[in-house]
Amino acid sequence: MIDNQQFTITINERREFRSTPGVSLLTALKGQQVFIPSACGGRGACGLCKVRVVRGPHSPLSSKERFHLTEEEQRQGLRLSCQVPVDQAMAVAIPDGYFHAKEYRAEVADIRNLTHDIRELQLRLIDPPVLAFKAGQYIELQIPRYAQVQRLSFRAYSIASPPSSPDRIELEIRWIPHGLGTTYIFKHLKLHDQVMFHGPHGDFYLRESPRDIILIAGGSGMAPMKSILLDMRERHDPRTTRYFFGARNRRDLFLVDEMKRLELDLPDFKFIPALSQPLPDDSWHGETGLIMDVVDRHIDSNRPADTYLCGSPAMINACLAVLTRKGFSDDRIFFDKYS
Amino acid sequence: MKLSKKLVAITAAMQPGQIACDGFLGNDPRSLAAIMAADQAAVNRIGLSHRQIARRMIEFRDAGQKACGDWITIPPRWEVRVDSARGKLLCPFGDPGLYPKTSITVRDIQNGTEITFTDLHIHLIGRHGFYEGSGCAFRVEPARLAEVLDIN
Ligand SMILES: Cc1cc2nc3c(=O)[nH]c(=O)nc-3n(C[C@H](O)[C@H](O)[C@H](O)COP(=O)(O)OP(=O)(O)OC[C@H]3O[C@@H](n4cnc5c(N)ncnc54)[C@H](O)[C@@H]3O)c2cc1C
Ligand code: FES
Ligand SMILES: [Zn+2]
Q1: Domain A212-337 classified CATH 3.40.50.80?
Q2: What is the interface pTM, i.e. ipTM, of the complex?
Q3: Ligand approaching nearest to the C-alpha of B126
Protein backbone atom coordinates (compact mmCIF):
# COMPACT_ATOMS: atom_id res chain seq x y z
CA MET A 1 0.00 0.00 0.00
CA ILE A 2 1.32 3.41 -0.88
CA ASP A 3 0.71 6.20 1.57
CA ASN A 4 2.46 9.53 0.90
CA GLN A 5 5.05 7.75 -1.19
CA GLN A 6 5.75 5.26 1.58
CA PHE A 7 5.42 1.50 1.60
CA THR A 8 4.06 -0.62 4.41
CA ILE A 9 6.38 -3.26 5.81
CA THR A 10 4.86 -5.95 8.00
CA ILE A 11 7.06 -7.88 10.40
CA ASN A 12 6.01 -11.32 11.63
CA GLU A 13 2.39 -10.47 10.71
CA ARG A 14 2.05 -8.40 13.87
CA ARG A 15 4.00 -5.20 13.52
CA GLU A 16 3.72 -2.68 10.70
CA PHE A 17 5.56 0.45 9.76
CA ARG A 18 5.94 2.67 6.72
CA SER A 19 9.21 3.22 5.00
CA THR A 20 10.39 5.69 2.40
CA PRO A 21 11.26 3.96 -0.85
CA GLY A 22 14.81 3.50 -2.06
CA VAL A 23 16.45 2.46 1.20
CA SER A 24 17.37 -1.16 1.74
CA LEU A 25 15.15 -3.40 3.83
CA LEU A 26 18.04 -3.68 6.32
CA THR A 27 18.16 0.11 6.74
CA ALA A 28 14.36 0.38 6.94
CA LEU A 29 14.25 -2.23 9.72
CA LYS A 30 17.14 -0.58 11.57
CA GLY A 31 15.20 2.69 11.49
CA GLN A 32 12.51 0.84 13.47
CA GLN A 33 15.12 -0.44 15.96
CA VAL A 34 14.93 -3.91 14.47
CA PHE A 35 18.59 -4.89 14.26
CA ILE A 36 19.28 -7.65 11.75
CA PRO A 37 22.80 -9.12 12.14
CA SER A 38 25.26 -7.48 9.78
CA ALA A 39 29.04 -7.46 9.64
CA CYS A 40 29.69 -5.63 6.39
CA GLY A 41 27.69 -2.43 6.70
CA GLY A 42 25.15 -3.56 4.09
CA ARG A 43 27.63 -4.29 1.30
CA GLY A 44 26.34 -7.78 0.54
CA ALA A 45 29.61 -9.32 1.68
CA CYS A 46 28.91 -10.98 5.03
CA GLY A 47 25.71 -12.87 4.30
CA LEU A 48 24.44 -12.40 7.86
CA CYS A 49 21.44 -10.18 7.17
CA LYS A 50 19.09 -12.93 5.99
CA VAL A 51 15.34 -12.41 6.43
CA ARG A 52 12.43 -14.37 4.99
CA VAL A 53 10.30 -12.30 2.66
CA VAL A 54 6.78 -13.64 2.96
CA ARG A 55 5.10 -11.22 0.57
CA GLY A 56 6.57 -8.50 -1.50
CA PRO A 57 9.38 -7.91 -3.87
CA HIS A 58 9.85 -10.52 -6.50
CA SER A 59 12.94 -8.78 -7.80
CA PRO A 60 15.56 -11.28 -8.97
CA LEU A 61 18.24 -12.26 -6.50
CA SER A 62 21.46 -10.29 -6.83
CA SER A 63 24.69 -12.19 -7.50
CA LYS A 64 25.67 -11.53 -3.88
CA GLU A 65 22.43 -13.17 -2.68
CA ARG A 66 23.01 -16.16 -4.93
CA PHE A 67 26.49 -16.48 -3.41
CA HIS A 68 25.26 -16.43 0.20
CA LEU A 69 21.92 -18.23 0.03
CA THR A 70 21.67 -21.98 -0.46
CA GLU A 71 19.12 -23.27 -2.95
CA GLU A 72 16.97 -24.38 -0.03
CA GLU A 73 17.12 -20.90 1.53
CA GLN A 74 16.22 -19.34 -1.81
CA ARG A 75 13.23 -21.69 -2.08
CA GLN A 76 12.13 -20.65 1.42
CA GLY A 77 12.10 -17.00 0.34
CA LEU A 78 15.20 -15.90 2.24
CA ARG A 79 16.85 -12.72 1.00
CA LEU A 80 19.78 -10.60 2.12
CA SER A 81 17.96 -7.64 3.61
CA CYS A 82 20.75 -5.25 2.59
CA GLN A 83 20.22 -6.22 -1.06
CA VAL A 84 16.44 -5.78 -1.13
CA PRO A 85 15.34 -2.23 -1.94
CA VAL A 86 12.08 -1.07 -0.41
CA ASP A 87 10.16 -0.52 -3.64
CA GLN A 88 6.76 -1.93 -2.72
CA ALA A 89 4.81 -3.14 0.31
CA MET A 90 6.25 -6.28 1.81
CA ALA A 91 5.94 -8.72 4.70
CA VAL A 92 8.97 -10.30 6.34
CA ALA A 93 9.52 -12.97 8.97
CA ILE A 94 12.44 -12.69 11.41
CA PRO A 95 13.39 -14.52 14.62
CA ASP A 96 11.65 -13.00 17.65
CA GLY A 97 15.03 -12.54 19.33
CA TYR A 98 15.78 -9.67 16.92
CA PHE A 99 13.07 -7.58 18.60
CA HIS A 100 14.95 -7.49 21.90
CA ALA A 101 17.80 -5.33 20.66
CA LYS A 102 17.55 -1.55 20.97
CA GLU A 103 19.80 1.41 20.36
CA TYR A 104 21.42 2.91 23.48
CA ARG A 105 23.34 6.04 24.40
CA ALA A 106 25.80 5.68 27.25
CA GLU A 107 28.57 7.53 29.03
CA VAL A 108 32.04 6.13 29.62
CA ALA A 109 31.99 5.99 33.42
CA ASP A 110 35.32 4.25 33.97
CA ILE A 111 38.35 3.02 32.06
CA ARG A 112 40.71 0.50 33.64
CA ASN A 113 43.72 -1.28 32.16
CA LEU A 114 43.53 -5.01 32.87
CA THR A 115 46.72 -6.05 31.06
CA HIS A 116 49.25 -4.42 28.73
CA ASP A 117 46.70 -4.75 25.90
CA ILE A 118 43.28 -5.31 27.48
CA ARG A 119 41.19 -2.46 28.81
CA GLU A 120 37.91 -2.50 30.71
CA LEU A 121 35.30 0.12 29.82
CA GLN A 122 32.40 0.78 32.10
CA LEU A 123 29.41 2.32 30.32
CA ARG A 124 26.64 4.07 32.24
CA LEU A 125 23.44 3.88 30.25
CA ILE A 126 21.68 7.16 29.56
CA ASP A 127 18.89 6.51 27.07
CA PRO A 128 17.27 4.06 27.52
CA PRO A 129 18.59 3.87 31.08
CA VAL A 130 18.66 0.06 31.39
CA LEU A 131 19.63 -2.88 29.19
CA ALA A 132 18.01 -6.29 29.69
CA PHE A 133 20.30 -9.06 28.48
CA LYS A 134 21.36 -12.62 29.15
CA ALA A 135 24.82 -13.22 30.60
CA GLY A 136 27.11 -14.05 27.65
CA GLN A 137 25.47 -11.79 25.06
CA TYR A 138 27.21 -8.95 23.23
CA ILE A 139 26.55 -5.43 22.01
CA GLU A 140 27.55 -3.69 18.77
CA LEU A 141 29.47 -0.54 19.69
CA GLN A 142 29.29 2.31 17.20
CA ILE A 143 32.71 3.55 16.16
CA PRO A 144 32.12 7.19 15.27
CA ARG A 145 33.97 9.26 12.68
CA TYR A 146 37.43 10.09 14.03
CA ALA A 147 40.78 11.16 12.55
CA GLN A 148 40.90 9.75 9.02
CA VAL A 149 37.95 7.41 9.69
CA GLN A 150 35.01 9.12 8.02
CA ARG A 151 32.52 6.28 8.00
CA LEU A 152 30.45 5.02 10.94
CA SER A 153 31.07 1.38 11.75
CA PHE A 154 30.21 -1.13 14.45
CA ARG A 155 32.29 -3.61 16.42
CA ALA A 156 30.92 -6.43 18.60
CA TYR A 157 31.93 -6.57 22.28
CA SER A 158 30.73 -9.11 24.84
CA ILE A 159 29.19 -7.75 28.01
CA ALA A 160 31.41 -8.64 30.97
CA SER A 161 29.08 -7.50 33.77
CA PRO A 162 26.06 -9.41 35.07
CA PRO A 163 22.43 -8.74 34.00
CA SER A 164 21.70 -7.64 37.59
CA SER A 165 23.36 -4.27 36.89
CA PRO A 166 21.34 -3.24 33.84
CA ASP A 167 22.22 0.46 34.14
CA ARG A 168 26.00 -0.05 33.84
CA ILE A 169 27.74 -2.52 31.60
CA GLU A 170 31.38 -3.47 31.37
CA LEU A 171 33.34 -4.40 28.26
CA GLU A 172 36.82 -5.94 28.11
CA ILE A 173 38.55 -4.90 24.95
CA ARG A 174 41.85 -6.06 23.52
CA TRP A 175 43.96 -3.61 21.55
CA ILE A 176 44.58 -4.67 17.95
CA PRO A 177 47.44 -2.77 16.23
CA HIS A 178 46.01 -0.73 13.33
CA GLY A 179 42.47 -1.84 14.27
CA LEU A 180 39.76 0.61 13.29
CA GLY A 181 37.62 0.12 16.39
CA THR A 182 40.31 -0.46 18.98
CA THR A 183 42.40 2.51 17.79
CA TYR A 184 39.35 4.65 18.53
CA ILE A 185 38.75 2.97 21.91
CA PHE A 186 42.38 3.09 23.07
CA LYS A 187 43.58 6.34 21.53
CA HIS A 188 40.55 8.61 21.24
CA LEU A 189 37.79 7.57 23.64
CA LYS A 190 37.98 9.42 26.97
CA LEU A 191 36.31 9.20 30.36
CA HIS A 192 32.81 10.82 30.26
CA ASP A 193 32.58 10.64 26.46
CA GLN A 194 29.25 9.42 25.14
CA VAL A 195 28.95 6.36 22.92
CA MET A 196 26.15 4.67 20.99
CA PHE A 197 25.57 0.94 20.77
CA HIS A 198 22.84 -1.52 19.97
CA GLY A 199 22.09 -4.85 21.58
CA PRO A 200 21.83 -7.27 23.18
CA HIS A 201 22.72 -9.78 20.50
CA GLY A 202 23.78 -13.39 20.24
CA ASP A 203 22.72 -16.81 21.38
CA PHE A 204 25.82 -17.40 23.49
CA TYR A 205 24.34 -17.48 26.99
CA LEU A 206 24.10 -19.93 29.87
CA ARG A 207 21.51 -22.68 29.38
CA GLU A 208 19.50 -24.12 32.24
CA SER A 209 20.32 -27.82 32.56
CA PRO A 210 21.21 -30.41 35.18
CA ARG A 211 24.66 -30.89 33.66
CA ASP A 212 28.06 -29.66 34.80
CA ILE A 213 29.43 -26.54 33.17
CA ILE A 214 32.78 -26.22 31.39
CA LEU A 215 33.91 -22.74 30.36
CA ILE A 216 36.93 -22.36 28.08
CA ALA A 217 38.32 -18.96 27.08
CA GLY A 218 41.40 -17.02 26.09
CA GLY A 219 42.17 -13.29 25.88
CA SER A 220 39.10 -11.07 25.72
CA GLY A 221 36.99 -14.27 25.76
CA MET A 222 37.11 -13.67 29.52
CA ALA A 223 34.33 -11.07 29.14
CA PRO A 224 31.22 -13.24 28.58
CA MET A 225 32.54 -15.86 31.02
CA LYS A 226 32.82 -13.25 33.77
CA SER A 227 29.25 -12.16 33.11
CA ILE A 228 28.04 -15.78 33.24
CA LEU A 229 29.92 -16.53 36.50
CA LEU A 230 28.75 -13.36 38.27
CA ASP A 231 25.20 -14.17 37.19
CA MET A 232 25.56 -17.71 38.54
CA ARG A 233 26.77 -16.32 41.86
CA GLU A 234 23.74 -14.08 42.16
CA ARG A 235 21.38 -16.90 41.30
CA HIS A 236 23.15 -19.30 43.70
CA ASP A 237 23.62 -21.68 40.79
CA PRO A 238 24.77 -24.96 42.34
CA ARG A 239 26.20 -26.57 39.23
CA THR A 240 29.73 -27.97 39.16
CA THR A 241 31.67 -25.48 37.04
CA ARG A 242 35.23 -25.56 35.70
CA TYR A 243 36.69 -22.52 33.95
CA PHE A 244 39.83 -23.04 31.81
CA PHE A 245 41.52 -19.80 30.80
CA GLY A 246 44.51 -19.85 28.45
CA ALA A 247 47.20 -17.16 28.31
CA ARG A 248 50.73 -17.05 26.95
CA ASN A 249 52.48 -15.81 30.07
CA ARG A 250 51.67 -14.04 33.29
CA ARG A 251 51.34 -10.60 31.76
CA ASP A 252 48.40 -11.88 29.66
CA LEU A 253 46.55 -13.16 32.72
CA PHE A 254 43.94 -10.92 34.35
CA LEU A 255 41.07 -10.90 36.85
CA VAL A 256 42.72 -13.83 38.62
CA ASP A 257 41.83 -12.47 42.08
CA GLU A 258 38.19 -11.99 41.04
CA MET A 259 38.04 -15.55 39.75
CA LYS A 260 39.66 -16.93 42.91
CA ARG A 261 37.05 -15.04 44.96
CA LEU A 262 34.33 -16.71 42.91
CA GLU A 263 35.78 -20.08 43.91
CA LEU A 264 34.81 -19.17 47.48
CA ASP A 265 31.41 -17.74 46.55
CA LEU A 266 30.13 -20.43 44.18
CA PRO A 267 29.30 -23.87 45.59
CA ASP A 268 31.48 -25.91 43.23
CA PHE A 269 33.63 -23.73 41.01
CA LYS A 270 37.29 -24.00 40.01
CA PHE A 271 39.25 -21.50 37.95
CA ILE A 272 42.06 -23.19 36.02
CA PRO A 273 44.36 -20.66 34.37
CA ALA A 274 47.03 -22.15 32.12
CA LEU A 275 50.12 -20.52 30.66
CA SER A 276 51.42 -21.87 27.38
CA GLN A 277 54.82 -20.13 27.45
CA PRO A 278 55.52 -18.97 31.02
CA LEU A 279 58.61 -16.80 31.40
CA PRO A 280 61.25 -17.63 34.03
CA ASP A 281 60.27 -14.44 35.92
CA ASP A 282 56.65 -15.58 36.04
CA SER A 283 57.44 -18.10 38.84
CA TRP A 284 54.43 -20.00 37.59
CA HIS A 285 53.37 -23.13 39.47
CA GLY A 286 49.98 -23.60 37.81
CA GLU A 287 48.95 -25.48 34.70
CA THR A 288 51.12 -25.14 31.62
CA GLY A 289 50.49 -26.00 27.99
CA LEU A 290 48.04 -25.11 25.27
CA ILE A 291 44.54 -24.71 26.61
CA MET A 292 43.07 -27.62 24.66
CA ASP A 293 45.71 -29.94 26.10
CA VAL A 294 44.97 -28.71 29.62
CA VAL A 295 41.24 -29.26 29.00
CA ASP A 296 42.04 -32.71 27.64
CA ARG A 297 43.92 -33.59 30.83
CA HIS A 298 41.19 -32.36 33.17
CA ILE A 299 37.76 -33.15 31.82
CA ASP A 300 36.00 -36.36 32.45
CA SER A 301 34.01 -37.62 29.49
CA ASN A 302 31.79 -39.67 31.78
CA ARG A 303 30.28 -36.55 33.35
CA PRO A 304 27.71 -34.89 31.08
CA ALA A 305 28.50 -31.23 30.69
CA ASP A 306 27.51 -28.12 28.78
CA THR A 307 30.60 -26.49 27.33
CA TYR A 308 30.94 -22.79 26.52
CA LEU A 309 33.83 -21.58 24.37
CA CYS A 310 35.01 -18.06 23.71
CA GLY A 311 38.26 -17.09 22.04
CA SER A 312 40.04 -17.12 18.71
CA PRO A 313 38.64 -19.37 15.97
CA ALA A 314 41.83 -21.47 16.20
CA MET A 315 41.31 -22.02 19.93
CA ILE A 316 37.65 -22.87 19.40
CA ASN A 317 38.46 -25.37 16.64
CA ALA A 318 41.22 -27.02 18.68
CA CYS A 319 38.93 -27.35 21.72
CA LEU A 320 36.07 -28.67 19.59
CA ALA A 321 38.39 -31.39 18.32
CA VAL A 322 39.24 -32.43 21.90
CA LEU A 323 35.62 -32.33 23.05
CA THR A 324 34.38 -34.33 20.05
CA ARG A 325 37.09 -36.95 20.56
CA LYS A 326 36.00 -37.24 24.18
CA GLY A 327 32.41 -37.85 23.10
CA PHE A 328 30.85 -34.51 24.10
CA SER A 329 27.82 -33.97 21.94
CA ASP A 330 27.73 -31.02 19.54
CA ASP A 331 24.38 -29.76 20.73
CA ARG A 332 25.78 -29.13 24.24
CA ILE A 333 28.76 -27.08 23.03
CA PHE A 334 28.12 -23.35 22.68
CA PHE A 335 30.11 -20.54 21.07
CA ASP A 336 29.38 -17.39 19.12
CA LYS A 337 29.27 -18.56 15.54
CA TYR A 338 29.72 -15.06 14.11
CA SER A 339 33.09 -14.73 15.77
CA MET B 1 34.36 2.67 -18.94
CA LYS B 2 32.67 0.03 -16.82
CA LEU B 3 36.04 -1.26 -15.59
CA SER B 4 37.29 2.17 -14.60
CA LYS B 5 34.07 2.80 -12.66
CA LYS B 6 34.73 -0.41 -10.76
CA LEU B 7 38.34 0.63 -10.10
CA VAL B 8 37.11 3.94 -8.72
CA ALA B 9 34.78 2.08 -6.31
CA ILE B 10 37.56 -0.28 -5.23
CA THR B 11 40.00 2.60 -4.76
CA ALA B 12 37.38 4.36 -2.62
CA ALA B 13 36.93 1.24 -0.46
CA MET B 14 40.72 1.18 0.02
CA GLN B 15 40.87 4.63 1.58
CA PRO B 16 41.66 4.89 5.32
CA GLY B 17 38.65 4.30 7.56
CA GLN B 18 36.46 2.64 4.94
CA ILE B 19 37.21 -1.01 5.63
CA ALA B 20 40.55 -0.84 7.42
CA CYS B 21 41.76 1.91 9.73
CA ASP B 22 44.80 2.86 7.65
CA GLY B 23 43.39 1.75 4.31
CA PHE B 24 45.26 -0.32 1.74
CA LEU B 25 47.13 2.18 -0.41
CA GLY B 26 49.45 3.94 2.06
CA ASN B 27 50.93 7.08 0.55
CA ASP B 28 51.53 5.46 -2.82
CA PRO B 29 51.15 8.11 -5.53
CA ARG B 30 50.43 5.45 -8.18
CA SER B 31 46.97 4.36 -9.27
CA LEU B 32 45.64 1.00 -8.07
CA ALA B 33 46.09 -0.40 -11.59
CA ALA B 34 49.71 0.79 -11.68
CA ILE B 35 50.47 -0.71 -8.24
CA MET B 36 49.02 -4.05 -9.32
CA ALA B 37 50.82 -4.03 -12.66
CA ALA B 38 54.17 -3.35 -10.95
CA ASP B 39 53.61 -6.21 -8.50
CA GLN B 40 52.57 -8.51 -11.33
CA ALA B 41 55.89 -7.71 -13.00
CA ALA B 42 57.77 -8.31 -9.74
CA VAL B 43 56.11 -11.70 -9.30
CA ASN B 44 56.91 -12.59 -12.93
CA ARG B 45 60.55 -11.64 -12.37
CA ILE B 46 60.93 -14.14 -9.53
CA GLY B 47 59.22 -16.79 -11.62
CA LEU B 48 56.20 -17.28 -9.34
CA SER B 49 52.42 -16.82 -9.50
CA HIS B 50 50.17 -15.06 -6.98
CA ARG B 51 48.44 -18.35 -6.31
CA GLN B 52 51.72 -20.09 -5.54
CA ILE B 53 52.59 -17.35 -3.06
CA ALA B 54 49.13 -17.50 -1.45
CA ARG B 55 49.29 -21.28 -1.18
CA ARG B 56 52.56 -21.07 0.73
CA MET B 57 51.11 -18.40 3.02
CA ILE B 58 48.20 -20.75 3.75
CA GLU B 59 50.63 -23.55 4.63
CA PHE B 60 52.31 -21.33 7.23
CA ARG B 61 48.99 -20.07 8.58
CA ASP B 62 47.59 -23.57 8.96
CA ALA B 63 50.73 -24.84 10.66
CA GLY B 64 50.84 -21.78 12.94
CA GLN B 65 47.20 -21.98 13.95
CA LYS B 66 47.80 -25.25 15.75
CA ALA B 67 49.60 -23.32 18.50
CA CYS B 68 46.53 -21.13 19.22
CA GLY B 69 48.45 -17.86 19.47
CA ASP B 70 51.86 -19.16 20.51
CA TRP B 71 55.07 -19.50 18.56
CA ILE B 72 55.45 -22.89 16.95
CA THR B 73 58.51 -24.26 15.22
CA ILE B 74 58.16 -25.37 11.64
CA PRO B 75 61.11 -27.43 10.48
CA PRO B 76 63.59 -26.93 9.07
CA ARG B 77 64.01 -23.22 9.87
CA TRP B 78 60.90 -21.27 10.84
CA GLU B 79 58.86 -20.12 13.79
CA VAL B 80 55.27 -18.99 13.24
CA ARG B 81 52.76 -17.24 15.43
CA VAL B 82 49.12 -16.63 14.52
CA ASP B 83 47.41 -13.98 16.61
CA SER B 84 43.75 -13.29 16.05
CA ALA B 85 40.92 -11.07 17.12
CA ARG B 86 37.34 -12.25 16.95
CA GLY B 87 35.42 -10.88 14.01
CA LYS B 88 36.03 -10.71 10.29
CA LEU B 89 36.97 -8.14 7.68
CA LEU B 90 35.73 -7.38 4.16
CA CYS B 91 37.70 -7.47 0.95
CA PRO B 92 37.94 -4.00 -0.62
CA PHE B 93 37.45 -5.49 -4.10
CA GLY B 94 33.77 -5.94 -3.22
CA ASP B 95 33.46 -9.68 -3.71
CA PRO B 96 31.34 -11.49 -1.12
CA GLY B 97 33.08 -13.11 1.83
CA LEU B 98 34.73 -12.17 5.12
CA TYR B 99 38.28 -12.77 6.27
CA PRO B 100 39.38 -13.47 9.86
CA LYS B 101 41.29 -10.72 11.66
CA THR B 102 44.52 -12.63 12.02
CA SER B 103 48.12 -11.58 12.18
CA ILE B 104 50.49 -14.31 11.00
CA THR B 105 54.19 -13.75 11.73
CA VAL B 106 56.76 -16.05 10.14
CA ARG B 107 60.35 -15.81 11.37
CA ASP B 108 63.32 -17.45 9.72
CA ILE B 109 65.30 -18.70 12.73
CA GLN B 110 68.52 -19.06 10.72
CA ASN B 111 68.86 -15.45 9.62
CA GLY B 112 66.37 -13.64 11.87
CA THR B 113 64.25 -12.22 9.02
CA GLU B 114 60.52 -12.16 9.54
CA ILE B 115 57.33 -11.12 7.79
CA THR B 116 53.78 -10.53 9.02
CA PHE B 117 50.65 -10.99 6.95
CA THR B 118 46.94 -11.54 7.56
CA ASP B 119 44.19 -13.78 6.26
CA LEU B 120 42.99 -10.87 4.17
CA HIS B 121 46.44 -10.67 2.51
CA ILE B 122 46.18 -14.31 1.51
CA HIS B 123 42.91 -13.53 -0.24
CA LEU B 124 44.11 -10.23 -1.72
CA ILE B 125 47.20 -11.90 -3.17
CA GLY B 126 45.71 -15.23 -4.24
CA ARG B 127 42.52 -13.84 -5.73
CA HIS B 128 43.43 -10.32 -6.84
CA GLY B 129 47.23 -10.20 -7.07
CA PHE B 130 47.25 -7.17 -4.73
CA TYR B 131 50.09 -6.60 -2.22
CA GLU B 132 48.89 -3.12 -1.06
CA GLY B 133 50.37 0.32 -1.69
CA SER B 134 53.78 1.52 -0.58
CA GLY B 135 53.83 3.31 2.76
CA CYS B 136 50.91 1.16 3.97
CA ALA B 137 51.75 -0.65 7.22
CA PHE B 138 50.31 -3.81 5.66
CA ARG B 139 52.25 -3.68 2.35
CA VAL B 140 54.04 -6.99 1.70
CA GLU B 141 56.76 -7.14 -0.97
CA PRO B 142 56.39 -10.17 -3.25
CA ALA B 143 60.17 -10.75 -3.30
CA ARG B 144 60.37 -10.61 0.48
CA LEU B 145 57.49 -13.08 0.85
CA ALA B 146 59.29 -15.39 -1.57
CA GLU B 147 62.54 -15.03 0.36
CA VAL B 148 61.26 -15.45 3.93
CA LEU B 149 58.76 -18.19 3.09
CA ASP B 150 61.24 -19.87 0.71
CA ILE B 151 58.90 -20.05 -2.25
CA ASN B 152 60.38 -21.23 -5.53
C1 LIG C 1 30.36 -11.80 18.84
C2 LIG C 1 31.67 -11.09 19.03
C3 LIG C 1 32.05 -10.67 20.29
C4 LIG C 1 33.25 -9.98 20.47
N5 LIG C 1 33.61 -9.62 21.74
C6 LIG C 1 34.81 -9.01 21.94
C7 LIG C 1 35.22 -8.64 23.27
O8 LIG C 1 34.51 -8.83 24.25
N9 LIG C 1 36.43 -8.02 23.40
C10 LIG C 1 37.25 -7.77 22.32
O11 LIG C 1 38.33 -7.21 22.51
N12 LIG C 1 36.87 -8.11 21.06
C13 LIG C 1 35.67 -8.70 20.85
N14 LIG C 1 35.29 -9.02 19.57
C15 LIG C 1 36.14 -8.57 18.43
C16 LIG C 1 35.76 -7.13 18.05
O17 LIG C 1 34.45 -7.10 17.54
C18 LIG C 1 36.69 -6.56 16.96
O19 LIG C 1 36.72 -7.43 15.87
C20 LIG C 1 38.10 -6.32 17.48
O21 LIG C 1 38.06 -5.41 18.57
C22 LIG C 1 39.01 -5.76 16.39
O23 LIG C 1 38.38 -4.64 15.86
P24 LIG C 1 39.19 -3.46 15.21
O25 LIG C 1 38.18 -2.58 14.55
O26 LIG C 1 40.13 -2.83 16.16
O27 LIG C 1 40.06 -4.17 14.10
P28 LIG C 1 39.78 -4.16 12.53
O29 LIG C 1 40.23 -2.87 11.96
O30 LIG C 1 38.39 -4.54 12.25
O31 LIG C 1 40.74 -5.33 12.08
C32 LIG C 1 42.13 -5.27 12.28
C33 LIG C 1 42.74 -6.46 11.60
O34 LIG C 1 42.38 -6.45 10.22
C35 LIG C 1 43.44 -6.85 9.42
N36 LIG C 1 43.83 -5.71 8.56
C37 LIG C 1 43.60 -4.39 8.80
N38 LIG C 1 44.06 -3.64 7.79
C39 LIG C 1 44.57 -4.49 6.89
C40 LIG C 1 45.20 -4.32 5.64
N41 LIG C 1 45.40 -3.11 5.10
N42 LIG C 1 45.62 -5.42 4.98
C43 LIG C 1 45.44 -6.65 5.50
N44 LIG C 1 44.85 -6.88 6.69
C45 LIG C 1 44.42 -5.81 7.37
C46 LIG C 1 44.54 -7.25 10.34
O47 LIG C 1 44.40 -8.63 10.59
C48 LIG C 1 44.26 -6.48 11.61
O49 LIG C 1 44.75 -7.16 12.72
C50 LIG C 1 34.09 -9.70 19.36
C51 LIG C 1 33.70 -10.10 18.08
C52 LIG C 1 32.52 -10.79 17.90
C53 LIG C 1 32.14 -11.19 16.52
S1 FES D 1 24.74 -6.79 5.81
FE2 FES D 1 26.34 -8.06 5.15
S3 FES D 1 25.43 -9.14 3.51
FE4 FES D 1 23.88 -7.83 4.13
ZN1 LIG E 1 38.31 -10.09 -2.81
Answers
A1: yes
A2: 0.94
A3: 3
